[in-house]
Write a structure and sequence with these properties.
By secondary structure, this protein is of the alpha+beta class. Helix content is 48%, strand content 13%. The protein has seven helices and six strands; from the N terminus they run H-H-H-E-E-H-E-H-H-E-H-E-E.
Length: 190
Amino acid sequence: MEKRQKYFEEALSDFVFDVAGGGAIRHLVDLGYSLDQMMQSLSYPAPRQKVQNSAYRYMLESGLLLRSLPEMEKWYEGANSAGVRVIRLKILDRKKLYQYLYAKTEENGADQVYISCPFGMARDVGGILRGLDCLNRREQAYIAGIPWENRMMYHRLNSRMREIGRKLILRPEIGCKYYFLRTGEIVEGV
């Protein structure tokens, strides 16, 4: 009975928190704020874990973060027979690479472009950040503030991920790829 009571109290607490502050948190997520930036921007005291949970729940509900891409079976490696084109770009000329990604994003629409995020598959967030030394502190804080699941996840190309993705594609060893859903293309750096 105590376990059920505790679950109910936690659910009620989360509901009250979402009603009281959820709108502000959702707005900050939409602006691409990191967890640290959200904590600084809220005009009321809130437990960090609750803010993180609320932001993460909204990211999943809104489709900003996906656990799998729509029709995931066609996105597996070697699935070219399903109409998916894998484009491997040599990273010799950043300007041409960025122009290509921009053109593909325009063609698909940013809401139809996702970046694969293997960050939850690492053992610890510190290890993730050491591998992401190509990112500035603000960008690292964004990645570190998301409670990544132990699987590949996909982040929609919002303004924050556009900034981060441009750097991550230059580091193929990290494993981030661009998925253009409308045209059925995967772009990765080599």
